[in-house]
Amino acid sequence: MSRHERRAWPRHPCLRDTRTPVARITSGHQVRLLNFSAGGALVEAPVRLVPGSRIDMRLLTDGPATSVPARVARCYVSSVHPEAVRYRAALAFDQPSDTVVSSVG
Q: Can you list the positions of beta strands (E) in the chain?
């Protein structure tokens, strides 16, 4: 079985030539959405998110506020610069959320 076939929900990339969607997490930090599905999201954050921890992701879009509870599935360093380290974290939503797809997509 290929990696693509194992995914329960289709993944939607956030296009680089448009404004990248952002969200705020429980700690108050702002994260960028890199891709998302009804079941989760890949985000880039300025801080390390601890795998297994629970967070609340609040989408910052032009529409109504959307808050989605999630669990951090994994987190890794994505880039290191003299002024900052950036992390990428995979978030698994507690419940499938078509609201995320319609709000961002």
A: 12-13, 22-24, 30-36, 40-45, 54-60, 66-81, 84-93
What local confidence, expressed as pLDDT, does residue 46 receive? 95
At 66, the pLDDT band (50, 70, 90 cuts) reads confident
**pLDDT band for position 69 (cuts 50, 70, 90):** very high
Residue found under tokens 């509870």 = 69
Q: Tokens 């990428």: give the residue.
A: 88
Query: Radius of gyration over alpha carbons of the chain, in Å?
Result: 13
Q: Where are the domains of the chain?
A: 27-104
24 HSE (CA, 13 A, CB side) = 7
Tokens linked to 13 = 């990339």
Q: Which residues contact 22 (CB under 8 A, 6 or more apart)?
A: 30, 31, 32, 33, 60
Residue type, 42: L
